[in-house]
Design goal:
By secondary structure, this protein is mainly beta. The protein has three helices and 37 strands.
């Protein structure tokens, strides 16, 4: 296929944009972040940070990058359950705060099996890969692996690091734990430290390799806050300031985004104005490159990692300022392969995008919805109006998108419907919920690639395992 043919096919992927709404919660203590993208709305500069944060929670994204010989249209029809989920009443807290009890099960047609767990008083910190972490009154954390009839406690060998680091004239106090949990390395920051009138926040943000972690150290408050990022060797205590000399003179880091393996970084830098600029940094080779020079895409609005080797880039048009109105501000979206330098246009200025995050888009045209993926697949959706107030939440490996109707009558999230868009099976399933109005549901996220978790304020959580 020649270059002109490829270009024509790529243009077909951009059908229309303007309205979109993103929603995502990854941990129980995070609020849902909604970011409007509409030609009738103005996106304020502060939302750039919100989108960067939202993008940063991605762990892995395994996709096939490239353009197929022909874009394939596959119809994805809706299967709606004939029965509803009946959310059970949560029993009174038990006296044993270290017991996770199964309080009920339910199977909803051919969509999902649901298990309901009660913790007897303590609050869940998070549930990930079927591992629950629970804070204790003494400040420690207990870990449990979820089983079919309850949970069993895991007792990892935990090592604690307490150290004092001198960096850029600042004394930085480190205090965190690390170990291996269920075969995977993990860390836990202990607390914030305070020194001589200036607030310092020092915490681990990920493993660079098995012996080294990334640490963010912040000093000062609000406008005078300065953040430093460095590598800390768990065995030797050696500190490596890998970003030294990377940031242009008179500029500072606004946000930082890591690749899933924590070996590549996207640095958003600015000098007091907005927008700033992006720098791509390879922490292994210690090389920094302007993102515009690397990708050939100027006017970058946001950038995040798909996976370790791919970027998702959005672009603004026209001159940016805080008084933009109406059609003066529109985004385009691109995929960029760091290994090959290949670039694909996902959507353009005339597209009507209902949802777009990390390279997967839901586009509406003349009442017809399409799901578009970076691999070149297009899925026509039938049987459901995806633009009718639904929120979407994608799993870590980008194979499923949860559909959430949060318009129910409730003082909490109000999840009146839960569904799934399965990009592998090419099917959409959804079911109604009853009884949720009596429960304070405060968070929702993916447990693993096939199961969703809903947290409540009543020391309970619900696990939805999709079939």
């Amino acid at each position: 296929m020649n270059g002109n043919s490829v270009e024509k096919l790529l243009r077909r992927k951009a059908e229309q944009l303007p309205k979109a709404e993103f929603a995502l919660t990854e941990q129980i203590n995070q609020q849902i972040i909604k970011i409007p993208m509409d030609k009738r709305k103005v996106i304020k500069p502060v939302l750039r940070v919100a989108l960067a944060i939202l993008s940063a929670v991605i762990i892995t994204f395994s996709i096939c990058f490239g353009v197929s010989a022909e874009f394939r249209d596959t119809v994805m029809s809706l299967f709606r359950a004939t029965s509803s989920e009946i959310v059970p009443k949560i029993p009174s807290n038990s006296t044993d705060n270290n017991t996770i009890k199964l309080i009920g099960k339910q199977s909803i047609d051919k969509i999902a099996d649901v298990s309901y767990y009660n913790l007897g008083g303590n609050c869940v910190n998070s549930l990930s890969d079927n591992i629950v972490s629970i804070s204790q009154t003494d400040g420690s954390i207990k870990y449990y692996v979820i089983e079919s009839d309850g949970a069993s406690e895991i007792t990892p060998i935990v090592k604690r690091i307490t150290d004092t680091v001198e960096l850029n004239g600042h004394t930085l106090l480190l205090d965190f734990e690390y170990s291996t949990l269920n075969g995977k390395p993990y860390y836990r920051n202990i607390e914030e430290n305070f020194i001589v009138g200036a607030r310092t926040t020092n915490f681990v943000i990920g493993f660079f390799d098995k012996d080294t972690v990334w640490v963010e150290a912040g000093t000062g408050r609000q406008a005078s806050y300065n953040a430093y990022y460095f590598l800390y060797n768990l065995k030797t205590g050696e500190v490596t300031d890998v970003l030294d000399g990377t940031i242009p003179e008179n500029k500072t880091i606004e946000t930082i985004t890591f690749s899933p393996d924590k070996q590549k970084l996207l640095l958003s830098v600015f000098n007091g104005g907005w927008p700033g600029e992006y720098i791509y940094f390879n922490a292994v080779t210690r090389t920094a490159t302007s993102l515009a020079d690397l990708t050939g895409i100027d006017k970058v609005y946001t950038c995040s990692f798909f996976n370790d080797n791919m970027l998702y880039i959005t672009q603004y048009h026209n001159e940016l300022n805080v008084n933009l109105t109406s059609d003066d501000y529109i985004l385009s979206g691109y995929c960029y392969n760091l290994n090959t330098g290949e670039k694909i246009n996902l959507f353009g200025t005339d597209d009507s995008v209902v949802y777009a995050l990390h390279g997967n888009c839901i586009i509406e045209k003349n009442g017809v919805y399409k799901i578009i993926t970076p691999s070149g697949d297009e899925y026509i959706v039938e049987g459901i109006d995806l633009g009718a107030g639904y929120d979407f939440l994608m799993n870590a490996d980008r194979t499923k998108i949860a559909i959430l109707n949060l318009s129910g009558k409730s003082d909490s999230l109000g999840i009146s419907e839960i569904g799934i868009i399965d990009l592998v099976k090419k099917e959409i399933k959804i079911f109604e919920r009853k009884g949720y109005e009596k429960i304070t549901e405060k968070g929702i996220g993916w447990n693993d690639s096939t199961s969703l978790v809903v947290y409540t304020s009543n020391s309970a959580f619900y696990l939805y395992r999709f079939k």
